[in-house]
Amino acid sequence: IDSAGSNHMQPTGLMFQKAISRSGLQHLAPVHSLNIAVSNGPVKEPRAALEWTENAVNGEHLWLETNVSGDLCYLGEESCQVKFSKSALRRKCAACKIVVHNACMEQLEKINFRCKPTFREGGSRSPRENFVRHHWVHRRRQEGKCKQCGKGFQQKFSFHSKEIVAISCSWCKLAFHNKVTCFMLHHIEEPCSLGAHAAVIVPPTWIIKVKKPQNSLKTSTRRKKRTSFKRKASKRGNEDNKGRPFVIKPISSPLMKPLLVFVNPKSGGNQGTKILQTFMWYLNPRQVFDLSQEGPKDALELYRKVPNLRILACGGDGTVGWILSILDELQLNPQPPVAVLPLGTGNDLARTLNWGGGYTDEPVSKILCHVEDGTIVQLDRWNLQVERNPDLPQDELEDGARKLPLSVFNNYFSLGFDAHVTLEFHESREANPEKFNSRFRNKMFYAGAAFSDFLQRSSRDLSKHVKVVCDGTDLTPKIQELKFQCIVFLNIPRYCAGTMPWGNPGDHRDFEPQRHDDGYIEVIGFTMASLAALQVGGHGERLHQCREVTLLTYKSIPMQVDGEPCRLAPSLIRISLRNQANMVQKSKRRTSMPLLNDPHSMPDRLRIRVNRINLQEYEGLLYDKEKLREASIPLGIIVVRGDCDLETCRMYIDRLQEDLQSVSSTTQRVHYQDQESSFPRVLSVQRLSPRWCFLDGKCISLLLCLA
């Protein structure tokens, strides 16, 4: 270590490498687990998924195949078995992001570089530590700035680059230059804050691998009670977690909002696999679950006693419904709220809760912030009870399913034209799943199937074969009069990939605006014309807002429950309120429409002081707010509406500059949105470049423009 504190660059020595390879593990596992004996025989198969049995080893990497040409073998030139070959097969760890050639796996075991720990061993005699240490990793490429000196990292684009430019933590993502003036010895053992997402990360100190009881004569007398307790705990753990020898012992804190992430890789355009790996990098891999491997029940049972728990469902609306049904079954109290990352095709529930109509590569870090800051709202859930139609004799019942695909719906239940199109899509996808690997293709098929069904007019006689009674009111005469070809029982405002079939009743005194938490369900009828008008802002025929529905069908009719279709035989269907689920609604900073249950009101006017700064000054002063403020040059003041967007601000800033050219250089003008007038104030300013852009100036209470 350069004790004199000179400024020249000096790589960290070999003394750091061994310490870094052990950092973050020694306090979570017995020492013997770090000294793994490696034989000269064949290395064990690299693990691609977490081990949840008693054979789980702390610090195991989660290897994924990779072909990214810029990632170099972690072993370096001296130890790499293939000497940075571009064509050699490689694997990348999802949790710590190191890359190693397949041929170098055994060598990595020999140097004993472990992944970040995901749990702690039970039964250890060492006192439990309630903090996590950093997991330091050498990097040959690193984004961002050095935590110590604030300077950027020298990027190496050549595949044959040998230099380690940074040392970063896999937990908190802090990074330092690989020199002793930046990364110091005390950093190795210091506690880790877990970074910007500490509130949602499940620390490895909470997850305990229960030590298997040992049948030893030495423990028969003095430790009899303790052994029986262990067996009891182990037995209960097996009952709760179906053989998983893990227990969760959380430390309650009002600041913590631990998150469970469930990813359905098969939803929508198969985006889930990439999302799954990214969450394992940002979080503890043991709080991220792949629904294609197993359902959510085991994980929810394991984490059921964690306070302030939140859930993120990454998939379509069907994935969300699956998780809500398991929560009903487990009867968790309080029920954890569920957020949605939309990976499906329609994503109507995600749209209702402001999560959008589909995932478009938004940074996972930002998604985690939205989940943490989101507002908890309620969602009505409705029972569907199906019986045989009692008005028809047994011999007159047609062929068809005897029950619906789901007995509970969260979004909508419908019958007729839309369900027939959904049924065709479902049958085609089951027959040829490889043709439905993107959201765009799925929507194109829906459009084609709808057009074909429109020509065939398969649902034209729907109104003749149904009877609908809502809260005692018989709607059948109106349904037959208007000859509806589709009837929808709607719980949320969105339907059919984002349309709003209930619309805004406005001055219609018979109906109220729709809500998903009011205990009422909306009943809507559609003709072919009103279905087509949905896509251009139209709505269906509003029939009723009710708490209970009785539906009788007299022939086999296509139906769908939250997008799951079937052709149901003549039946009696009763719809009634089941319960309310807690959901996480994404908060929006600025919107022209108030959020549901949002207590904060939008200010009518915003007075914004506008300053300019050039790129060179901004990069040099980025981390010093006061100097950044002093270096910026005032342009003037604009006053805009509270829901104004940046494009409107740009227009008023441009107008501000035009006015400045026509007045003295010692005056400043204030521009008001919706007003033509302005008045001068003292100022000195230069005109912006035509290529100027906005900077995030919220930290210094002004709007910065980059010249």
Major β-sheet, in short? 6 strands, antiparallel
**Distance N terminus to C terminus?**
42 Å
> What is the C-alpha radius of gyration, as a whole number of Å?
31 Å
Write down the overall mean pLDDT. Answer: 77
Proportion of strand residues: 15-25%
- Poorly predicted runs of 5 or more residues: 1-12, 24-43, 216-242, 590-601, 664-669, 675-685
Record field, number of beta strands: 33
How many alpha or pi helices? 17
- So what's the oligomer here? single chain
Kindly report the spatial arrangement of strands forming the biggest sheet.
17-16-27-24-19-20
The secondary-structure class comes to alpha+beta
Describe the overall structure.
- It is an enzyme of class 2 (transferase).
- One of its GO terms (cellular component) is cell projection.
- Keywords: ANK repeat, ATP-binding, Cell membrane, Cell projection, Cytoplasm, Kinase, Lipid metabolism, Membrane, Nucleotide-binding, Nucleus, Repeat, Transferase.
- One of its GO terms (molecular function) is ATP-dependent diacylglycerol kinase activity.
- InterPro entries: ATP-NAD_kinase_N (IPR017438), C1_DGKiota_rpt1 (IPR047486), C1_DGKiota_rpt2 (IPR047487), DGK (IPR037607), DGKI-like_dom (IPR056383), Diacylglycerol_kin_accessory (IPR000756), Diacylglycerol_kinase_cat_dom (IPR001206), NAD/diacylglycerol_kinase_sf (IPR016064).
- By secondary structure, the chain is an alpha+beta fold.
- The protein contains 17 helices and 33 strands.
- The chain has a six-stranded antiparallel beta sheet, with helices on one face. It has a six-stranded antiparallel beta sheet with strand order 23-22-21-18-25-26.
- Strand 30 and strand 31 form a beta hairpin.
- Helix 11 crosses helix 12.
- The radius of gyration is 31 Å and the shape is globular.
- Residues about 1-10, about 25-45, about 215-240, about 590-600, about 665-670 and about 675-685 have low confidence and may be disordered.
